[in-house]
Amino acid sequence: MRGTEVVAKALRTCADTFYTVPGYPVTEIAEILHAELVINEKVALEYALGDSIAGRRSVLIIKNVGLNVCADPLVNATTQGLRSGVVIIAGDDVLAKGSQNTQDSRYYGEVAQVPVIEPNKINCVSAIASAFEASEHFSRVVIVRVTPQLLENEAVMGACKRQGVQGKLADPNLTMRGRSQAAEKLTSAMFEWSRSSPLNDFKGGVVGVGATEGDSHVATVYPPPAKTATLARTNELGRSFVHEHRCIKAQNFKDKPETYTKRGHYRTFCRECPFKPLIQKLVDRKMSVICDMGCSVLATNPPYRIGVACYALGSSIAVAARSTQVALIGDYALLHSGINALIDVYEKHRPLLCIVLKNDRMGMTGGQEIYDLLRYLTWAKPVVCRADNERNLNKELVVTKTPRTLIVEGMCPKGCNHETVEC
Q1: Is 78 helix (H, G, I), strand (E, B) or coil?
Q2: Engineered SS bond to 18: which of 35, 230, 331, 355, CB 3.0-4.6 Å?
Q3: Number of other CB atoms surrounding residue 148 within 10 Å
Q4: String of DSSP letters for 247-258
Q5: Where does 3-244 sit in CATH, by number?
Q6: 138 within 8 A of 115, measured Cβ to Cβ
Q7: What is the pLDDT of residue 367?
Q8: What confidence category does residue 296 fall into, taking pLDDT thresholds of 50, 70 and 90?
Q9: Which CATH class is domain 264-422?
């Protein structure tokens, strides 16, 4: 059986949902799994994160250059956490047979601080199972790097057992700094995971990485799977990633992650913010929302606490479409990168209430003016409501069986800043 078929069968056993933006060398894997085609890789990963919040394991099947497109939510998911496992199958075209470059996806392991696994023909199945287990154990996405050398040749279809533990979203009592500190501690623990993984086989001599030949073989390519001397000679596809990273060591973090109480304050909306009545209505209705970066992220803080998660700028729409079905996003975030997700959601008729805070400003970075959102959303037939129109808000704050966009207009008070409240 070819590696493509083995990988696909293992994924079908281990995962619940499958998304793809096809490309060589992973198109056939996506076809076998009938993976859902998505408008771009960023939106696809956000869908997968939404599934994770809802308790479903998910897979994103993309080629190497597609990994660039989903870098923002990939990196932020490490800090913000997840529940059920999320795995990216990254197809590296090492000879540029069907790609514009020979990008090596393993470097994203270091950038995003996520485990990277590169299976060989013997451990394909166990590598996929291990990837989901690691994703849930470390509460972050895992990258599985596959190459044509693995996919187009014979591989072993071993037994595949689905097991694992539920991951965790970031502790809501932690500041953003505290969430980063907590994630860094788990990153340190990843080093021991890599070195103790049964996917690796050390017998001395040249170390074969993934689908390459060697006296020894390794699959957990990031963090480094062995001590420096053991990885002195490697045989790798693409750049000498494992050899280059053999000297990296786990950092020792002694400080406890920072909480709001320890810091002594939290930030919330401006005192005269026109959108505060809207946020309070969401609280009163006990509506769990996915927040976006920008002012809407403040809904995750006290005293509101309605934000379940927040991954990246423009991410709330796709994440919410697969989880809470309520997205809270600013007009700039929607224009920045959320609009692709909104298009995909509308094309697929997914139930979603997309609430847009329209202040015509970049609220978090100094109040810079932005384009008028409305001229670019006529196709969505949005409902436009003033922030002080309580009657319309009461009517429109509902989730239906089809996607809806509610644009709430408000003018930011001049000279005001986000309020700092002592704990």
Answers
A1: helix
A2: 35
A3: 21
A4: T-------SPPP
A5: 3.40.50.970
A6: yes
A7: 85
A8: very high
A9: alpha beta
* CA 99 – CA 14 distance, rounded (Å): 29
Angle in degrees, CA 291, 75, 91, rounded to 5: 120
The tens digit of pLDDT for each residue in 71-111 reads 999 999 999 999 999 999 999 999 999 999 999 999 999 99
Spell out where 124-194 has E strands: 142-146
From the CB of residue 54, how many other CB atoms can be counted at a distance below 10 Å? 17
| C-alpha triplet 113, 119, 125: angle, nearest 5° | 110
Query: How many C-beta neighbours within 10 Å does residue 420 have?
Result: 10
Judge whether 135 and 87 are in contact, CB under 8 Å: yes
Residue spans per domain, the chain: 3-244, 264-422
pLDDT at position 16 over 90: yes
Q: What is the pLDDT of residue 254?
A: 82
pTM over 0.85: yes
User: In 3-state terms, what secondary structure has residue 362?
Assistant: strand
Task: State how far the Cα of 223 lies from the Cα of 234, in Å rounded to an integer.
Answer: 15
- Cβ–Cβ < 8 Å for 98, 25: yes
Mean pLDDT of 41-50: 98
pLDDT at 366: 84
Contacts of 87 (CB under 8 A, 6+ apart): 11, 14, 15, 57, 58, 59, 60, 128, 131, 132, 135, 141, 142, 143, 144
Rounded Cα distance between 87 and 79, Å, is: 16
Bridge partners of residue 81, in order along the sequence: 169
User: CA dist 357 to 187, 278, 309, 413, Å?
Assistant: 35, 10, 18, 14
Asked whether the predicted pLDDT for residue 201 surpasses 80, the reply is yes
Q: What is the DSSP-derived secondary structure letter of residue 114?
A: -
Q: What are 240's two structure tokens? A: 């000498």
